[in-house]
Structure formats: structure tokens, C-alpha cells
């Protein structure tokens, strides 16, 4: 018998993948995988044939009987046929390193994982030793994929050099940015990759225990990773000098900030800590701690397996390697697109994303989650690169790209940024706690035509105070969406509207 691969990714499940799997299991062996990230084609199933896998999608449960009668099991059915997955243009244009196995392997099969390059990085690390492992990560140019872009190797070197009888590895999987889902996809589709990456980090810095801090809104990812941890322990990958525990957050956006996350892990209220001391010196429970984003840690095994130079060959400038870019919002082809740094924003939105799903012109794109700037089409030549975005007052963040068409009201988007900050502030510092509330009030006055010029000037001053006076990035980065809206879409702040509270 051949095999049929049906995704168990949350997106596919929401579209009936479980029912499809149940129907197909009557005819053939069904393997549940993660998603390849072509979300407009989900559920995308794949049939094993002598010529390789053949993809079909989007498949609905009601399509299964006809597809079976048309020769689906041999890959001969013509309806919904997409051909070989790697030949689909959206996939063919990618450079998949971190996501090479996602949607391909059974996420709970160590045999599948190892047969597709898994555990080679950990084995290499053990061969070359902790210091050389850290040096390889540093030489690769890998930077934090959570948004700050700090060199990963420097973090590891700092923790390794800090004298302590206990050290920790903490994975930040509290993926709360709008338009992002890469962490979830990997936890559901390739969880052993995170386990391997954390084991390498623990070996490199001398840590015996790791924590994965996962957002509560990801029930499928949570259960998948817990299952993978048990499999890894049974296989002896964990438990012999290094182990991992998953902790689930309570839905606070601020706990994506590293020190708030540490507070939460310690059982306290999620509030920002002042720095110094840095977590690398005094982190979880007061001990030296490596804190990396999930995408950072899942990239480490590739670097150890293939070498620093091979990874550094991708990218541009100081942004080396690949970035899993998450295309979302008003797009025809929303999905996960991993490619080397350097691709332009316009290519991502218009070429790869296919423009808006509504068919209307693109007006704005927000990159970097709710703290990211809004870019108009005039800035679509901006290359996807940390420094290139910073030069234009933007942020890459976690790699989320959210598209809006010409019906968007950018003044209301600016107000939403302040509202979001007010709702998610930990309350520890005045610029964020009070500034966000005052920001909503000022924008409401502008929307209602009250002393517009004076209130626009006040909004500029308030953003400056929040940017330079806030304790962490939440209050410090909220000015990015507000100021970009003011800069690129000033006309939206000159139109009188009725109060938002009445809407």
C-alpha cells in the first residue's frame, strides 16, 4: 500500500483535515504531518507514488469520494491536483532551512526526523565540544528571530563564561504578534527540531535544564510538544544531563518580553524587570540564562549540521541566513515563506502573496506585529533586512507581514495601537501605562476634529516620551505604528469622524 499524508496543523484542522483523514484511512495508510504553509490550499494532502509525492488541495471532506474514484490513491486524479509539492511556485521560490521538514515528516516519528537530517547537529556539537559549538553559532551570523536581532552566539558566550553552579535555557514561544504563526507550525509539525536546538544550547553553555514558554492559545502545539518531549525522553535524547519542561502562559502579550517571561516562569505576575542585570548574568531564578526565540533555536541544528559558512552564505549585510516570513491579512496567497534576507517588501506582497484577496489596491503593510510600522507602497523597495527596515523607522519583529487594502482607516489603526498598549501594559512604568491611555484620548479628539493641529503636535510629543521613556519595547515601540501612520497617511488624520466609543 502507498501512503497519504494529511496535515494535522491547526489551520488544516479548522478546515476539516481530521474528517478527511478518517475518510481516507478506509482506503490507505494515512500519515499525519505538519503543514507546508500554503494556507490558501489547506487542507493540502499528498499521495505517495513511484514518481514522488503528488499534492492535492484545497480538499474538502465532500471531495474525497470523487477523488478516490478518479484515481487519487495512484496520484492520477486530475481535479484539485497540484503536482509535486516542491514544484508549486510558492514552495519552489523558497530557501527552506528551518522549515525543511515541516509538512514532510511525521512529527512524532524520531525515525522520520533522523532520516531527514535530524540529530546530526547535536551529534556534531558533541564531537567538536561546547566552545567550538558556540563559536560556530557566532560565526554563522545568526541573530535573534524574536525581533531584537541580537547575535545569538554572543548571548551563548556570555552565559558560558558566567560562573555558576546552575544555568538555564529558555525558549520564548509566546508568539503573540498579529499575523505570526511560525512558532506554532514548528511545534506542531517538527517539534524534535526545537528539542535538538535546545539540547545543543544546553551543551554549549553548560545548562542542565530548559523551559519552553508557550502561549495558552496554542492547544494543538502544546499537546504536540508534550508528546514529543516524552518520545525524546524514552529515546534517551532528554534526561541524560539535559531535560526540557513546557510551561504555558496565561495570555499576556507582555510576557513575550524576556524579563516578564522570566517573572511568569517563576510564578510571579508578568512584569518587566529593569536591566541590568542582564538575564545572561542573572536570569531565571537568579541564575545565568540563555533566552532565545523558538525560530532561533530551531535554526541552530541546521548551522551545526551544515556549518557556519554554509548558513552565512544566505542573506545580506549583517542579516545572515534565512527568515521564515509569515504572510497574512488581506492577501490571496497567505502562508509561510522562508527565504534569505534581502527580498523586497513589494516582492513579498505583490508577487509571492499575489496582492489583496479583495482585489483592491494595497494601501499599507504592517511588518513586525502590533508594534511594527505601517509601510505604504512607496516603500515597497525596502529589503527584508534588520538594518534596511531600521533606516526607514520600521521593525522586522518576528517576521509577520499583515496587508491592508485601500479601505483601511490609518488614523483608526493608530488609535488601535494605543488601545492595544493600554490593554497589554504590565503597568510598571508611567510612559507606557499612562501614555497609552492619553494616546487614545488624543487620537479620539483628532478623529472628532477637535483642535486637530494642537493635538497632532501633542501626539508627536507623547510618542517621543513613550519611545525614550518606557521601560521595555511595548511602550517604546508603540510609537512606530502611530508615527508611521502620521507620516505616510496624514490625510486620514484630517477627516472628522464620529466618536469611536459610539461605534
Report on the architecture of this protein.
The model has no long low-confidence stretch (mean pLDDT 94). The longest helix is centred in the C-terminal third of the chain and has 18 residues, at 430-447. The strands form four sheets. A five-stranded mixed sheet has the order 2-1-3-4-5, covered by helices on one side. It folds into four domains: 3-92, 3-Layer(aba) Sandwich (Glutaredoxin); 110-311, 3-Layer(aba) Sandwich (Rossmann fold); 315-405, Ubiquitin-like (UB roll) (Roll), CATH 3.10.20.600; 410-502, NADH-ubiquinone oxidoreductase 51kDa subunit, iron-sulphur binding domain (de novo design (two linked rop proteins), Up-down Bundle), CATH 1.20.1440.230. With 503 residues, the protein is an alpha/beta fold. The radius of gyration is 23 Å and the shape is globular. Strand 3 (45-49) and strand 4 (52-56) form a beta hairpin. The protein starts with a strand and ends in a 15-residue tail after the last helix. Helix content is 41%, strand content 16%.
What can be said about this structure in brief?
The chain has 503 residues and is of the alpha/beta class. The protein has helices at residues 10-14, 17-24, 64-69, 89-92, 110-115, 120-128, 130-140, 152-161, 182-189, 191-205, 219-234, 258-265, 294-306, 308-312, 345-352, 386-391, 410-424, 430-447, 452-469, 473-477, 479-488; strands at residues 3-7, 29-33, 45-49, 52-56, 81-83, 168-173, 209-214, 243-248, 289-293, 315-316, 319-320, 322-329, 335-340, 362-367, 374-375, 400-405.
